[in-house]
Amino acid sequence: MSELVDLYSEKKEKTGKVISKDAPFPPNMFYLTAHIWIYKDGYWLIQKRALSKKANPGIWSVTGGTVKAGENSLEGAARELKEELNIEVPTEQLRYIGTYLQKYAFVDVYFLEFHKNLKNISFDRQEVTEVEWATFSEILEKNSMHTFADCVMPGLSMTIKNLNENNNERN
């Protein structure tokens, strides 16, 4: 059975309606997703999506997914981290960066500064086949070779811009 999602208006307001994610969407209606950009010492944690995934199978991407009906995006982000990478963090450690629109979905972008070793990460092979730490340049290279999900790149740009602005404010 397909996941149920809350429907949102063009202004990102909940409509009170729920629909199957796989059902045709009514005009001008959207659902919510959450992406989490995980960072450690100049590297971003990226993951290769399982071949069985409907969207972007076998392509490198970021942790995240659909926010289920009844969840907010922060809860969805924490759940996706646990489901995909077996990472449990207090929601206070997830920093909201912003939102962008992607086809039928609002994408809420979160940032997590990671302090654990990659060896401690186990992942769900139904979701992810491989994880690696990559520099921004390596991600851009994968993206130019069409081996990285183009649809998540706005979130990385937003995150880097936000981090740079915060660093400039501190200096």
CATH architecture: Alpha-Beta Complex
Oligomer: single chain
Level-1 CATH class name: Alpha Beta
**End-to-end C-alpha gap:** 51 Å
What is the count of DSSP helices, taking H or I runs of 4+ residues?
3
Helix content: 10-25%
Give the overall average pLDDT.
91
Number of domains: 1
Which blocks of ≥5 consecutive residues have pLDDT under 50? Answer: none
For the largest beta-sheet, the strand count, sense and barrel status come to: 7 strands, mixed
The secondary-structure element order is EEEEEEHEEEHH
The CATH topology turns out to be Nucleoside Triphosphate Pyrophosphohydrolase
Percent strand equals: 25-35%
Number of strands: 9
